[in-house]
Batch of 2 targets.
Target 1
Amino acid sequence: MTKVNVSLPAEAEANVQAFIDEVDERLSSSEDTCRVVTETLVDLHGDREAYDRWQAGEEVSPAERVRLQGYDPCNATLESEYYAEKDEERFPESKYLQWLWRQFDATPMADNVAFALRFRGMLANHLFEECGDDCRFFKGITFTYGHNISVGDNVVIHDDVHLDDRGRLTIGDRASISDNAHLYSHDHDVVDQTAVENYHTIVGDDARVTYDAMVRAGCRIGENAVVGARSVVQGDVPDHHVAAGIPAKSLKIKPGWESVADPIEDRLENRQSERRIDYELPEDLETFDEFGRDRTPPAE
């Protein structure tokens, strides 16, 4: 896709950069992250006057109180907070940053591409395990934790992509993930849905996962490979291959790479077991079964 350079007017650019620098500096300091997130969201949503009135003990309506307290990530829960195997030490910081990312995307400023890409890129440097240079993160991206994601240089992740890092997710340099793609790093047992296995899922350098595709946990998308739209990947896509379908299989080798690519096979090799990430739960952990199903097979 051929693109041209676009820039904001000078004054708008200066204001945007000053704001991003301020938030970045505060997140890099010893200041409490929860407080930084709360105050940033209050101002982004234009609620400073009402928030200060509430903090001063003045009367506010129940609905207003719920809205104002919701800027503080300590007053919210995320789905991943309920996962028993999460890293209890790393999760709180990731939760606060993820809350800022998600609530920023709920503001009108999230549609200002020149501003929003840089703001999310700054947040990714604090949230992800690793984040390379010149990455572009578009609106509506979701993730499980964030701290189990490693992203290389010049990566582009488009609108409404889900990055599941319940296990571990690595995305190589110059990779592109198109709108509504889902990359998973965990699987559920077929019989016991509460039993979860985590894996390392990999997208290689220069790979493309296109629109609405799903990559199953523990798969590897090879270097310079392409996954076709709405495909379901259940095995490793070899380097330089174009794979598509449900389940996806290699259809051809990208023109020009025939001499270095592996030959096309009937099906993608599944190496999920090699990328399994083991974990242990504390014996005294209090859990619950949200389904309450009887998993006993019928008698013969």
Target 2
Amino acid sequence: MSVSLPSTSSALFAVSPLQEGNCSFPIRSSTANFIFKLHRTYPQLRASSSNASSIETGLSTELDAVSSFSEIVPDTVIFDDFEKFPPTAATASSSLLLGICSLPDTIFRSAVETALADSECYGQKDPGVRMSCFLNKALVNVGGDLSKLVPGRVSTEVDARLAYDTHGIIRKVHDLLKLYNELGVSPERLLFKIPSTWQGIEASRVLESEGIQTHLTFVYRYLCRCL
């Protein structure tokens, strides 16, 4: 942003677009021109050799600033080119399954098709149970494939319709974990994505006490965030 201040008393502010991330304020007078440049700075976290962390201030973008405090994990796009865009972690979710089914050619399509052809699920007489079985198998099959491609953990979404059912969430996570065990995926590589309702928080507490790793999502209230 540039603001020009002519020396005349009738001067008006003239604002020009932001250029190169700097804010320039030229002040014009009859004697000299003064240029003030303001650079936006963000705190950066630096690890020291003594295992303590220190905060330094330097020039960076917002993304760089956030990255210095946390690890950025893409969560919404299907990448088949894992060599060019190597992710560090991944999430298996219903939206990911929908994206896989909408693409004509993806490395995860066979994982979904295998789940939809599962004879155990077809044997379920109740339509709701049958659909839940297909969804569980598809999530775990895709999650199992993702675990072979990323070095970090794979998060698996728990059905949001169970958000207000503590016991339902716990049963769902146990079912998903059992399927992952059948694929040979270590529990240490897994996270389970639970809605942060009061019931979800309680379910997470119980599961964590069992050694099952969880994380809470869909935080809409301040109290939930504090917990």
